[in-house]
Amino acid sequence: MTPDQNLMLYTKLAGFRLVVLANRFGCDSEFSRDLHDRLIEGLEAAIGRVRIIMSLERSVLTGEDEFAEYQLEGETEIFGRFTINLLDDLEIDFDTHEYRINGGDWAIALTADYTGVDIDYPELVALTDNELGSLGPIIKDITRETGIAVNASRVIFTRCEGS
Hints:
The chain is an alpha+beta fold and 163 residues long. Helices cover 52% and strands 20% of the residues. The strands form four sheets. A three-stranded antiparallel sheet has the order 2-3-4, with no helix packed on it. It has a two-stranded parallel sheet with strand order 1-8. The chain is flat and about 70 Å long. The N and C termini lie far apart (51 Å).
């Protein structure tokens, strides 16, 4: 991205942060306030990463830091995968049959007993429009205008007994 594009992205992220802050005042539940707070934190983290990228771009242009170009490349790559998780994050390691929720400890999804082997991973289920409330359209706008994915999902366990 060019410095102008980064400045525009910074401006959009800061604007969305203000929109979410203002929208938070209309929340009627603790759950909704928590979602707003997590989105604000995610936007602040994205703004911080863009600031770092812009600072590194200045260092590359002025030639004051010989490693700035490598750092810039790494920061840009990291930012390209940046995602805001509002509720739950699920990581699954299919090789070891383990999963972890929200960066916690790894849990084993594989069980075995005299009836056989069972592998049961939890699932991510998107929050409904009703659960998202007024954040739904804002989240869509953030993704459309900045390219940053916003995940609004919860982990559920769908173990079927007797199977």
